[in-house]
């Protein structure tokens, strides 16, 4: 599902109000954004958007436009929460606030002990707004209310039937494949000298076609590409079942690896990937329901962005 409210106070970050958000005459309260009957001036908007910029002193227009759109979606969903009487779960609210209290560093540029200072483009520390605990609590509560609304109202009956999952599987057979995998065993050594002696014994046994057991190989599992360290992966994925590697130095010592089995990439059967296909159907249905829900909300609670009062080029749909 698409992100909702990426800046919804993931860790309570509160940055100083910057000059990048809006342009406003000192002392005025000109609205920059209107959502339904709610108006937001430049100071309010900057305060809400700042945590999502990661402390950048001059975030780009695309970043700010995306954050503004997500803020609008959040405001619309909070209006819906009001309409449906959805409140934040009390126990979760208190637990999250308590966690923030135990970890002041997670407040980001909020000021207070443990906070990480925000620097401008020249590396000079930006003065921070004093920590507002009431605002912090409200932001946590708003995020939890949106989550509860999505769970109880918007996405409550989203499901993936077997028929829908099979259609998803049939239409994406190029995606639903077995990855290439190898099953490995290793022979462990404490020194390179011992490892080279072991490798010599393996070569001699192979040359004489000896059936005597050489070495103590221990199974370490099955791996797909991209999991093992790159130098090791390059060697073992070039081997066939039964082959052993040269001596490799690893973080845990010297090793000789043996390929016990190998499965080439190939098409998967529906039952093998049913859960993945069902998850894809659920995510697509959830996105569609959420977008329809938001469109209905905006039709009843119009949104106006006064782009001329922003001091960044607005790149959103409005």
What do these coordinates show?
With 318 residues, the chain is of the alpha+beta class. Helix content is 41%, strand content 14%. It has eight helices and nine strands. The protein has helices spanning 42-49, 61-84, 90-102, 133-154, 162-171, 192-207, 230-236, 270-300, and strands at residues 31-35, 38-41, 177-178, 181-189, 218-224, 248-250, 253-263, 266-267, 303-305. Strands 5-4-7-6 form a four-stranded antiparallel sheet. The protein has a three-stranded antiparallel sheet with strand order 2-1-9. The protein is elongated.
- Largest sheet entry: 4 strands, antiparallel
Number of helices: 8
The overall pLDDT average reads 82
Tell me the fraction of residues in β-strands, as a range.
5-15%
SSE class:
alpha+beta
Stretches where pLDDT falls below 50 for ≥5 residues? 2-21, 23-27, 108-116
Topology pattern, helix = H, strand = E: EEHHHHHEEHEHEEEHE
Rg, Å, rounded:
29 Å
Sheet with most strands: strand arrangement: 5-4-7-6
Q: Could you say which overall geometry the principal axes of the C-alpha atoms support?
A: elongated
Amino- and carboxy-terminal Cα gap: 23 Å
Record field, number of beta strands: 9
State the share of residues found in helices, binned by percent: 40-55%
Oligomer: single chain
């Amino acid at each position: 599902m698409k992100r909702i409210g990426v800046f919804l106070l993931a860790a309570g970050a509160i940055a100083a109000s910057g000059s990048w958000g809006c342009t406003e005459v000192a002392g005025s309260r000109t609205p920059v954004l209107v959502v339904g009957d709610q108006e937001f001036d430049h100071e309010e908007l900057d305060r809400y958007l700042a945590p999502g910029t990661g402390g950048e002193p001059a975030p780009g227009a695309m970043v700010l436009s995306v954050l503004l759109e997500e803020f609008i979606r959040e405001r619309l969903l909070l209006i819906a929460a009001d309409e449906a009487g959805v409140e934040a779960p009390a126990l979760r609210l208190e637990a999250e606030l308590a966690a923030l209290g135990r970890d002041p560093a997670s407040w980001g540029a909020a000021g207070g002990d443990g906070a990480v200072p925000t620097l401008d483009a020249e590396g000079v520390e930006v003065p921070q707004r004093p920590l507002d605990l009431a605002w912090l609590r409200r932001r946590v509560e708003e995020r939890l209310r949106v989550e509860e609304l999505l769970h109880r109202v918007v996405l409550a009956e989203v499901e993936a039937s077997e028929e829908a999952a099979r259609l998803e599987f049939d239409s994406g057979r190029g995606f639903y494949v077995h990855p290439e995998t190898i099953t490995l065993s290793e022979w462990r050594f404490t020194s390179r000298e011992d490892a080279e002696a072991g490798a010599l014994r393996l070569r001699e046994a192979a040359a004489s076609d000896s059936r005597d057991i050489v070495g103590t190989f221990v199974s370490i599992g099955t791996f797909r590409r991209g999991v093992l360290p790159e130098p090791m992966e390059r060697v073992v994925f070039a081997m066939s079942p039964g082959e052993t590697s040269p001596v490799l130095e690893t973080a845990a010592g010297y090793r000789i690896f043996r390929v016990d089995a190998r499965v080439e990439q190939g098409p998967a059967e529906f039952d093998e990937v049913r859960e993945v296909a069902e998850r894809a159907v659920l995510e697509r249905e959830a996105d569609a329901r959420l977008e329809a829900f938001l469109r209905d909300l905006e039709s009843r609670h119009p949104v106006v962005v006064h782009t001329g009062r922003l001091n960044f080029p607005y790149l959103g749909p409005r």
